[in-house]
Amino acid sequence: GPMIYKTYLKTEHSDENIEFWLACEAYKKITSQRKRTSMARKLFTNYIQPEAPNVVFLFPINIDSPARKAIIRNIQEPTQSCFDEAQRIIYMHMERDSYPRFLESKFYQKLKHSLQTNGNNSMIN
């Protein structure tokens, strides 16, 4: 399911949302401050910073100015929760916008049909 959703987001050119959300989940699990700082800078460069020279730049995620400014303030000594607000905003975008479209898409319909067909076959066997 999640991989089909990610594939669908690529067709909409909005896969940076799920990528950022997943990266935040991994970031929260980091216990080493050194690794957290390194990962926080990477998240900032790849998803938050409006322009990233000399970097393979994905696309900046769509977050509001206060969330972006909070991250910029906290990036020097990042905490486990410094991306929480941005992650919440991105989740909300997906929940209200791209996920409902995904549920109507051929990607989801194909997955649903496949699961129903395989589910029925497994009940027979």
Describe the structure.
With 125 residues, this protein is mainly alpha-helical. It has a single domain (2-109), classed as Regulator of G-protein Signalling 4, domain 2 (Orthogonal Bundle). The chain has helices at 2-11, 15-28, 33-48, 65-74, 84-104, 106-124. The two termini are 24 Å apart. This is RGS13 protein. InterPro entries: RGS (IPR016137), RGS_sf (IPR036305), RGS_subdomain_2 (IPR044926).
Instruction: Return the string of H and E elements.
Output: HHHHHH
Radius of gyration: 18 Å
CATH topology: Regulator of G-protein Signalling 4, domain 2
In CATH, the architecture is Orthogonal Bundle
Shape: elongated
The level-1 CATH class = Mainly Alpha
Total of helices? 6
Distance between the termini: 24 Å
Report the average pLDDT across residues.
86
Protein name: RGS13 protein
Domain RGS: 1-112
Organism: Anhinga rufa (African darter)
InterPro entries: RGS (IPR016137), RGS_sf (IPR036305), RGS_subdomain_2 (IPR044926)
Summarize the entry for a quick read.
The protein has 125 residues and is mostly helical. The chain has helices spanning 2-11, 15-28, 33-48, 65-74, 84-104, 106-124.
Chain-wise SSE layout:
Blueprint (H helix, E strand, L loop, with lengths): L1 H10 L3 H14 L4 H16 L16 H10 L9 H21 L1 H19 L1
Helix pairs in contact: 1-2, 2-3, 2-5
Protein name: RGS13 protein
Organism: Anhinga rufa
InterPro entries: RGS (IPR016137), RGS_sf (IPR036305), RGS_subdomain_2 (IPR044926)
